[in-house]
Amino acid sequence: LNYHLTGWPAVSHEIQKISKADSLRAEVIGLSISLVILALVFGSIVAATLPLIVAIISIILSLSMLFVIGQFMPITSFGEIIVSLLGLATGIDYALLMVNRFREELLAGLEPKQAAQKTVLTAGKAVLISGLTVLIALSALLVPPLSFIRSLGLTSIVVMFFSVSVSISLMPAIFTLLGSKINLLKITRREPGTRTKKFWANRAENIMKFPWLWTIFGITVLLAISLPALSMQVDVSGVRGLTKETEIRKAQLILEKLKLDSLQRSIDILVDFGDRGFYHPSSIRKIAKLSRAANKIDNVESSFSAMSTQGIPSLLVQQYYATKDLALDSPLSTLVQRTISKDGRYALIRVFPKDGILPSTASTILDKLRSSSKNLGLTTVFGGSYLNDKEFADVLYSSFPLAILLVYFATFILLGLAFKSILIPIKSILLNTLAVSAAFGVITAVFQFGWFAPLFGLEKGLGFIETIVPVFIFSVIFGLSMDYEVFLVSRIYEGHKQGLSDKEAVKQALSATGSVISSASLIMIVVFMVFIASRVVLIKTLSLGLSVAILLDATLVRSTLVPAIMSLAGNWNWYMPKIFIKFADKINLSHD
Question: Where are the extended beta strands (E) located within 417-574?
Fold first, then answer.
């Protein structure tokens, strides 16, 4: 007997199974490619392995913590793959910055212990601040009153907490123990970074010669890439969110051939007839009218109710429904048991829209059904998978603007205190928002419109974006983008405190961090891109969105827009009212 499972329980089970397998495969591939990149960046096998150790330890600790938390509350089935995705990317990212700074201090002539201390006070503080901004951004996922979204947020916060903690606590101890041995097993004679520093210094000079031109160019490009996002629609993919080689998707394709795929999702109408009940001529007529009205609505495939009595004369149907006992003793008894409550008060009508309709179309169908019910004077309650998905999205997106404002406010305060500046946090918030918008534009073009869809394992676009994707991408990218902002601006701030002009400070900072930011972003992009091979479209979408955002952030935002804008701002970069400076001195988040 050949069979295929389908339905939501089967979909949920399949997603869990696939996520585990995809996560393991992605971890192996991601770690392998990252090791190669790190070896080329540092020119030493020993130095290259340290960030990988941090990532692995962070993942293990995160999974252990989530196992404990899971005893008290449900954890999303995507938990394991989210831990792998963020654990690899951020664990390597933060450790890379620490290793790079430690080796710089060793080259400057410091003893291992002193170099480790200097690394903690500079790169370690940058990691802490950037980690806090990521945690602030991820806390936005805790605002919507939805257990699934909060579970995603908690999972992400746990892995980020351990990535930061391991980087700033374990790494200094390893540095002190290894000392100059961190450069063992060299694969190149030339000291890595000597050519790239000159490249980034020249780039900074060229950008600051024409800062207005580069600012306009960068913002225009980001806005252009963001344009498709204006047409973004969100929905829950369900079975459509799995690639065609999965068992559940195969079952869906068979149902499509049989034209039964619309039965997977429905709009349910529960009619309350009160004391009169269903077994009354007027009630029967109203159910019949509502069923006919539903079938006449555009994009409705079919409906199912007590009046789904094809082949039975209407006069005979009315006789069967004269009383409850007659109905249960008639050929319609099975239909009655599935559509009429035992006491006869409630009647169920299930309306099946055509599969693959857009969320806006489903909303139109729902509005017309409500209108028809009202015109018939019926007391109704609506439910079903379409309404569940719509209400999920409504609750999520009604509360998320508040979450975004809270993230903006907290980020402004944190960066303002860290760099004693009003302009820097404003600039950071605006540029990060542009990077996120550009990522939205790309995923809308690929997964909704279907541009280049075959490159990502899809036959065509879905016509929408998974409901949770924009929310998750905003929270993660807004935080991760701050990593590079903090890394770069921290160095600029160091130069500023040393008495350098703003242009010299920017040039020195980009020269020192350009290679590190490029390497870190490359590793993060590689890790994210590996997960695009996932058989779950949700993970594909997240991976592409995160990859694009990091790519644009590292190339266009940090290495182009930040130097240009800070060059234009001059001394205004470091303006802050005196009363706030005193408060910032007490908090001591800066690099003074």
Answer: 465-466
Confidence of residue 524 (pLDDT cuts 50, 70, 90): confident
CA angle centred on 195, ends 176 and 529, rounded to 5°: 75
Q: Which residues, 6+ apart, have CB-to-CB distance to 43 below 8 Å?
A: 183, 186, 187, 188, 190, 191, 192
Distance in angstroms (rounded) separating the CA atoms of residues 369 and 372 = 5
Residues of the chain with CATH 3.30.70: 266-383
DSSP codes of every residue in 209-223: HSHHHHHHHHHHHHH
* pLDDT, greater one: 480 or 208: 208
Only one residue has tokens 């007529």, namely 285
Rounded Cα distance, 538 and 356, in Å = 16
For the four alpha carbons of 559, 561, 567 and 570, in that order, the dihedral sign comes to: negative
Do the strands 234-235 and 465-466 form a parallel or antiparallel pair, or are they unpaired?
parallel
Give me the CATH code for the 266-383 domain, please.
Answer: 3.30.70
Give the pLDDT confidence of 176-197 residue by residue, as tens digits.
998 888 888 887 665 555 567 7
pLDDT tens string 270-324:
999 998 899 988 998 999 999 999 999 988 888 889 888 888 888 888 888 888 8
Which of the 8 DSSP states describes residue 192? T
Task: Write the CB contacts of 576 (distance below 8 Å, at least 6 apart in sequence).
Answer: 416, 420, 421, 422, 584
87-109: burial string, b at 16+ Cβ within 10 Å, e else: bbbbbbbbbbbbbbbbbbbbeee
Per the listing, tokens 């594909």 go with 540
Nearest-angstrom CA–CA distance, 431 and 437? 10
